[in-house]
Amino acid sequence: MRTEMQGLFSDPALERHFTGHSGGITQLRFSPDGSQIATSSMDSSVILWNLKQAARCIRFGSHSGTVNGVAWSPKGNLIASAGHDRTVKIWEPKVRGVSGEFVAHSKSVRSVDFDPTGHQLLTASDDKSVKLWRVARRQFIASFTQQCNWVRSAKFSPNGKLVATVSDDKSLRIYDVGSGECVRTFTEERAAPRQVAWHPWGNMVAVALGCNRIKIFDVSASQLLQLYVVHSAPVNDVAFHPGGHFLLSGSDDHTIRILDLLEGRPIYTLTGHTDAVNAVAFTKDGEQFATAGNDKQLLVWQSNLHTYDASQFETKSALASSGCDTSAASSTKQSNASDAKSNDLSIRIDPRQSLAYQALDEDFQVVDVSLESASESACSCEAQLEEMNEMLKLLDERVRRLEGIYTL
């Protein structure tokens, strides 16, 4: 049978298994270089997991309530976290890093996101608003306020020119950052969206819905492109593979799904979590992804999607359904009977028998760090310096242009 399996693509495989939070994990993000993961939690903390140093992680406990979201700046030199305590924290991801905080909204802050330059920050809140801030001085710039209910998430497009928001008023809205105007509105009849993700090409968005569905919209054409009903409970998070051909999703049904967007079908059903999966994310190169949720577990996977061959999928799915082991790292089989009724041929992977799952990384040193507000002024120094350097570059360009005009 091993000879028969030669030449087929490789399945996703669990690499690391972490526990450390005392409450459910609400969000996770890889650092830009993929060496660390930041997780936010209901236990009022953010943990930085160093994937290169297995014996150490850093826990920041500066919020007074649930931390709803976390984001890395594009250069990886800053982290922002959004709290139920109405505050946003901006801090350096190291033990003796400086920090700052500000009250961003009048109610719980649900999400936080850096723009591609790292100079601006986007926050979404239960006060029905989305706000744009300047990172260097924590200075308010503008509001996007057409939502009529809690705003679950707000994300910059890859080029930073658009903002996508999802709200409990059952809307997906697209705003133009420059004008502040809402340029697209999509409404959902069944249930409110819980999370939104931009396609890496910047022309599409995926929405995780409370009615167990995933929708992908073409922003420019204002139309629904794809609809997936692959979960049996509300979908909490979605993430595009950097290549743009796959989508990752996590749900209250305790599973993770991987969708082949070119073929329009689910190809993997991943288990291993024992409660709702709240957060999913890919690394920048797409070689790894991570999942986390209410069971307080953080699972880090090797994606192996670079080996995927759609022409081999049915063959491999049939082998999985016959009970053949197509993966040396985990238990693999076709998805369960209820899924099969809906023509779901996805390959089901249960990592709980794998060595990576059983070798739980729990014997690491947790360094607790409390961020002091006294260091607020220091937090913005590096960001201000970067902003000044950008301004100097612009001035140099203008001077060169003027010199060129006068020499004519």
> Within the largest sheet, what's the order of strands?
22-23-24-25-30-29
Number of helices: 5
- Characterize the largest beta sheet: strand count, sense, and whether it forms a barrel: 6 strands, mixed
Instruction: Kindly state the number of beta strands.
Output: 31
Overall geometry = globular
- Return the structural class: mainly beta
Binned strand content? 35-45%
Query: Radius of gyration, rounded?
Result: 22 Å
Uncertain residue ranges:
336-341, 373-381
Average predicted confidence as pLDDT: 87
Distance between the termini: 77 Å
- The portion of residues assigned to helices is 10-25%
Structure description:
By secondary structure, the chain is mainly beta. Helix content is 13%, strand content 43%. The protein contains five helices and 31 strands. The chain has helices spanning 2-5, 313-321, 337-340, 355-358, 376-407; strands at 13-19, 25-30, 36-41, 46-50, 56-60, 67-72, 79-83, 87-91, 99-103, 109-114, 120-125, 130-134, 139-144, 151-156, 162-167, 171-176, 182-187, 193-198, 204-209, 214-218, 223-228, 235-240, 246-251, 256-260, 265-270, 277-282, 288-293, 297-302, 331-334, 347-350, 365-369. It has a six-stranded mixed beta sheet, with helices on one face. The chain has a five-stranded mixed beta sheet with strand order 2-3-4-5-31, with no helix packed on it. Strand 8 (87-91) and strand 9 form a beta hairpin. The radius of gyration is 22 Å and the shape is globular. It starts with a helix and ends with a helix. Residues 336-341 and 373-381 have low confidence and may be disordered.
